[in-house]
Design goal:
- The structure is a homodimer of 460-residue chains.
- Chain A contains 15 helices and 18 strands.
- With 460 residues, the first copy, chain A, is α+β, with helices and mostly antiparallel strands.
- The first copy, chain A, folds into four domains: 87 residues, Uridine Diphospho-n-acetylenolpyruvylglucosamine Reductase, domain 2 (2-Layer Sandwich); 119 residues, Uridine Diphospho-n-acetylenolpyruvylglucosamine Reductase, domain 3 (2-Layer Sandwich); 113 residues, Alpha-Beta Plaits, CATH 3.30.70.3450; 96 residues, Alpha-Beta Plaits (2-Layer Sandwich), CATH 3.30.70.
- Chain A has a seven-stranded antiparallel β-sheet, sandwiched between helices.
- The radius of gyration of chain A is 22 Å and the shape is globular.
- The two termini of chain A are 21 Å apart.
- At the A-B interface, strand 9, helix 7, strand 11, helix 8 and helix 10 of A face strand 9, helix 7, strand 11, helix 8 and helix 10 of B.
Chain lengths: 460, 460
């Protein structure tokens, strides 16, 4: 509950209609896409512009009120679950693409701008914004920056952090901070931009983002290859990479996922396959052609049972629409879906696949696995029902085993979904307590009352 | 001066021979490549391994002793000038390349490893470590990381920060911190790796670096084009970029630099040219050929007076050796050389060139300009004599005008040389006092006694 005075003060800043406190509004913003307990905030605020945003932050600081910023709420690690009695700030009204500079190849956007909208706007000018998280059709760029969102093109093009040139944001006290530059090179001051990317709203609240753009690839070619087993498919991934081919996208899908996706999307996927690789090559036409031939040869040599090359844009779109539907398709099968993103060095994908099979058997759980095999970033997805308490206990153990397996293979807890609330307790296993203590000192110095998205990353 | 007890304690950690306190040793490490006043440290320490390094840091923390880490001392902003009565730690004995992983395309190195040695070691395996600061033949990777070093390939390949996957380091108290991962994607915990890159030794002391590698380009082609003026050359740069060609390297040299370089290197540069563009294209052979043709056509259309394409590796090497000698060549002309690296969005290069001409005329100074035109990163180089007090006052004013010009064109004080001591006082003009205050809070939380390279970036 917030006091009437405070409620009134928020109304004075953002306007009456943009302070929501009705129970149905509060429930709407009590959860995100992670299977965690919802937490109801005290109010939901919708600032229109940077000035309103800054005033809201300063007021929250004065009143030691927790702030959780929310874009589209597609977060998979609980990063947008608010603090009890705190406020949620929606970025939906700050969604403008402020500038697309063709000569210097950058864009300036507000945090609420939708990822896919920027991508299509710059594509119309022959430019390319590569990061493409699965939720890009609705996800916001502010959320992408704060989670360091990945996607299907990480292998060749990197992730969100590789495209953030500069930021401006409000710190916990409501001071306006500017960092980075519109220049390709910038070595002035600390790399606060780098620190902010992936900080999950715990160090500051964005009002503007400068994003790097690159020329749009001249040509693209997509290939689907079917294998008898996920082991065979994952060995093929290692072979493609070791031949120094760098596909734009190199995705894997196991049998459970293939069947779910085909039932859901009717894309014509071979449901008898043990696993699929979905590959896209892009760039200079001659190279795309040559690399596509090499990829086909490697797949054949590795025993692919079927190889299809998309002949036109429609076929190409069908492949990727099918892949993008994987999460939604799996979500149809069971009431609760736990989507992990433990990531390993790419040569360890076959080992990780083996570990997942063992974990699935040990805990008697259905795990559908798909994901970005080319960059070692699998999405083992546990299909379950949270109401089944006995099974849920096994799920929790299986999650721990997945984390252990990734770390023991030299990998990481999270490739792209962030630490959030979901992985906070496991952070120590990967980075150690000295690194956590270092992070806590940093957090406390920048946000002394811990009002910025408390509990995320380093816990309370 | 350090006490005898402390001197003895350092000897106990690193061994007698590795604590230097003779005046000639101290003088040797009192300056770097920036034209600033030398400062003599109290001792110079040469730890052999991570454990010794950690013990040295902890001892310095206990005694509130300032630490400046030094690789090759090629710093151009005073970042390796020690604090009076502080210690210098040399990384020369921690110079191993610990791992080159071909399958997962990363390398693990110690901070004292020399940049060019890593580059040639990975090239032998068909891999590529692109960042190539001008001093790469002697510069160390630890120094490159701490300065976020740039180089000639920034336009296509980015800078050091784009290749740092993970780090381990000692914080100010001597705690060992691990950050980042050997995986291409990592969204676990804060992006401390990003914060450390470019932090100039003020937040921690590296003991290990994980660097990303990529496949070595299949083909390369180098072109030299001569123009009647630097204006004509810089307009051509903008034209190449706007045609969506992305050269690996796109360098510019004005007449002063051409003459100095030719006198120094006898590479056969056309000394009658008003300016030169030095261009390298790399990648898939078909694309390199096609892009080279396009570049030649653009240069012709823009009035190039002479265009040469390197026919073989020897000719290619000659071009780039000449370019790399620019700094040394200019240094022959006058006793003091002030090398700036103010950077602008690349389309503003013609405006920046005009501003430099005006500044040179206003303050009656000789300014040789060369640099990375493709990424907006020029190196205006003032040729002067610090002993000439009247001229030096004009130099100081000219430097301020160069900074003003870059900032007013939407650029930055430093593209790649760092803030160090040299630009610390000007930082406010670019990022504002709120951002500096934010940085100070961060610094003080992580290094409460300000023992880590004090005075750099944010001042004392």
């Amino acid at each position: 509950m917030i006091s009437k005075t405070l409620y009134k003060a928020f109304q004075d800043i953002v306007g009456k209609a943009k302070v929501l406190t009705e129970p149905e509004d509060l429930v709407t913003y009590s959860y995100d896409a992670a299977p965690l307990d919802p937490v109801t905030p005290a109010a939901v605020l919708m600032p229109e512009n940077s000035k309103e945003l800054g005033n809201v932050v300063a007021l929250c600081h004065e009143n030691k009120l927790a702030i959780t910023v929310r874009g589209a709420g597609t977060n998979l690690s609980g990063g947008t679950i608010p603090k009890k009695d705190g406020v949620v700030i929606l970025t939906g009204h700050m969604n403008r693409i402020l500038e697309i500079n063709e000569a210097d190849m950058y864009a300036v956007v507000q945090p609420g701008a939708v990822t896919a909208r920027l991508a299509s706007r710059v594509e119309a000018k022959g430019l390319f914004y590569p990061p493409d998280p699965g939720s890009q059709a609705v996800s916001t760029l502010g959320g992408n920056v704060m989670e360091n969102a990945g996607g299907l093109r990480g292998l060749k093009y990197g992730v969100t952090k590789d495209y953030v040139m500069g930021l401006s944001f409000y710190d916990a006290m409501g001071n306006h901070i500017k960092t980075g530059s519109k220049t390709v090179k910038c070595a002035t001051g600390y790399n606060i931009t780098g620190l902010m990317v992936g900080s999950e709203g715990t160090l500051g609240i964005l009002d503007e983002i400068i994003l790097k753009l690159i020329p749009f690839p001249e040509d693209r070619k997509s290939i689907i290859a079917a294998f008898i087993s996920i082991e065979a498919a994952s060995e093929t991934v290692a072979r493609i990479i070791s031949d120094r081919i760098v596909p734009a996208t190199l995705e894997i899908m196991d049998q459970i996922t293939i069947k779910a996706v085909e039932d859901f999307s009717h894309a014509g996927l071979p449901t008898d396959a043990g696993a699929l690789l979905l590959i896209e090559l892009d760039g200079y036409p001659g190279q795309v052609k040559e690399d596509a031939q090499k990829v086909v040869q490697i797949c054949e040599k590795q025993g692919a049972t079927k190889i299809q090359t998309a002949e036109n844009d429609e076929q190409r779109e069908k492949i990727w629409a099918a892949r993008r539907s994987a999460l939604s398709a799996l979500a149809q099968l069971k009431p609760t879906l736990v989507l992990e993103d433990a990531t390993v060095p790419r040569s360890k994908i076959p080992d990780m696949v083996q570990s997942l099979a063992k974990i699935s058997a040990t805990y008697d759980l259905t795990i559908g696995t798909f994901g970005h095999a080319g960059d070692g970033n699998l999405h083992p997805t546990i299909l379950t029902d949270r109401r089944n308490k006995a099974e849920w206990q096994r799920v929790e153990k299986a999650i721990e085993r997945i984390f252990d397996a990734a770390i023991s293979l030299g990998g990481t807890l999270s490739g792209e979904h962030g630490t959030g609330l979901a992985k906070s307790a496991f952070l120590k296993n990967e980075i150690g307590s000295a690194s956590i203590d270092f992070s806590r000192r940093l957090k406390t110095a920048l946000d002394p009352y811990h009002i910025l998205n408390p509990g995320k990353i380093i816990g309370d």
